[in-house]
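Design a sequence for this backbone.
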């Protein structure tokens, strides 16, 4: 069995798009196809993104026919932990891949609409070659939720930006690349504590916390710097597009960022996304737009040899 893929990175975070040889997910909504990918074809997810062909940080994407007549494609994102609701850095990577394949031009203003399991998004080419993604509606559900750890008390805002986030700024740690191990350990403890509180009925959030986002001051002329722990235990090399969307929802709710104003979010490696928001249809809901750059890094054909005991990845 062979699977043709195109790799890219978006501000440091990799995306691998399946362009040939992907699973037959049938018809129906993109959300139902995502469920089918998880329940019937999870071995292909693990084959594409896990070692020995992938890594814990790699995000995969499979293109599908559009669900809505106004859309151009459907897309399902997945990583080392499972299927994702949405991925902004991955959407930027998909748009760059479609440019590479000649299915999207590089002219400023050209756009493509993609159906995802959590709703449609639009990617637009900027005048500088960057790609802007108008993401799904985003909002904050809880503010300053106390999270007691064994060595400190932190407070989390809980927000949806296409995935669920706990956003924390009083963690007491420096957001520096050299401290990524300590930040991973802290963010993991926060996530475990919050999800345990949710399960025993004492948590202030409805959905499980997928991602933990720690904030600190910027190192350049941006507005903030973050460390984002992803569901499978890896940290985001980019500033995390769904995480930046969740941050914009919190800033808007606090009156700290006006509609249309730009927020520059730095990642732990120093890469950047710029984000802004417009009002959604319901009070407290915003529609974020996140902009960043992506580059093609390779094209390859993955071979799944039936004699290879690790053809479906190292689990």
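Sequence:
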């Amino acid at each position: 069995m062979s699977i043709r893929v195109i790799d890219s990175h978006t501000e440091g975070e990799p995306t691998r798009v399946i362009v040939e040889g992907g699973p037959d997910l049938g018809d129906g909504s993109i959300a139902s196809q995502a469920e089918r990918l998880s329940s019937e074809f999870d071995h292909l997810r693990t084959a594409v993104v896990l070692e020995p062909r992938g890594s814990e940080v790699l995000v995969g994407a499979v293109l599908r026919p559009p669900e809505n007549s106004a859309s151009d494609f459907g897309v399902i994102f997945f990583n080392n932990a499972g299927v994702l609701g949405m991925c902004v850095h991955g959407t930027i990577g998909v748009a760059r891949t479609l440019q590479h394949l000649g299915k999207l031009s590089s002219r400023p203003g050209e756009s493509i609409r993609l159906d995802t399991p959590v709703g449609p998004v639009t990617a637009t080419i900027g005048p500088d070659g960057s790609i802007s993604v108008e993401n799904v509606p985003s909002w904050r559900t809880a503010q300053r939720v106390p999270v007691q750890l064994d060595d400190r008390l932190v407070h989390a805002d809980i927000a949806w930006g296409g995935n669920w986030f706990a956003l924390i700024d009083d963690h007491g740690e420096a957001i520096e690349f050299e401290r990524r191990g300590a930040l991973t350990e802290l963010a993991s403890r926060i996530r475990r504590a919050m999800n345990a509180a949710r399960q025993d009925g004492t948590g202030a959030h409805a959905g499980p916390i997928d991602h933990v986002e720690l904030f600190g001051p910027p190192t350049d002329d941006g507005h903030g710097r973050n460390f984002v722990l992803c569901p499978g235990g890896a940290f985001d090399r980019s500033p995390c597009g769904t995480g930046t969307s969740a941050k914009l929802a919190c800033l808007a709710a606090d009156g700290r960022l006006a509609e249309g104003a730009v927020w520059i979010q730095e990642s732990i490696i120093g890469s950047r996304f710029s984000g802004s928001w417009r009002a959604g249809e319901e009070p407290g809901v915003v529609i974020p737009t996140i902009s960043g750059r992506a580059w093609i890094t390779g094209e390859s054909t993955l071979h799944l040899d039936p004699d290879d005991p690790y053809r479906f990845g190292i689990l």
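The chain is about 20% helix and 35% strand.
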